[in-house]
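Worked Example 4.2. Consider the chain below.
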Amino acid sequence: MQETHRVEAFIDGVFAIAITLLVLEFKVPSLAPTASNLELLRGLVALWPSLLAFLASFAAILIMWVNHHGFFRLLDGVNTRFLYANGFLLLLITFVPFPTAVLASYLDRPGAHMAAAAYCGTHVLINLAYNLLWYTAARRRQLIKDQVPQQVLQRVRLAYLLAFPVYLTATALSLWQPYLGLLLCSSLWVLWAQLDYTAEPP
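Applying the procedure from the previous section yields the following structure tokens:
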């Protein structure tokens, strides 16, 4: 098995780039040079879909990074299969700015249903990637530290599995009610933000 330090440094860089790219969706309002303060204010207010999409994706990527960091604390090392699974996850993480941009552009338009579904659907794929990452590491505990209790692995596994139908439902719901779909998708932040990779369950 290989050491994890170099891999973690690379991962941190990828997450940092993905989270930075989100802000590129903000565009300065295109107004006439003689535009008044009120017109500029209206132009800035019109950017609310971009702000909402930015905040949602920033929070999502931040929480993903925290969970990824927690997952790595369980590892005794990595192997080639794990690196490829991790690469698939990073591919999807770097893709997040694109559905975010689509959501920002269409959230207040008739295409909001498909934009929200594409955004939630991206999280379905990310959840699949996290499950694949867990499988490559925790199956038969091949990459897990000996001192990690089995209860911790079961708790993480259950959280990853239960999230899949929720993300899938959010994607389908978005095609009918985009805001409800996005709300359901974002509700999982509570699960991920509180998922404990170290302590024993109460």
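The radius of gyration is 19 Å. The chain has a mean pLDDT of 90. Compare this with Example 4.1 before moving on.
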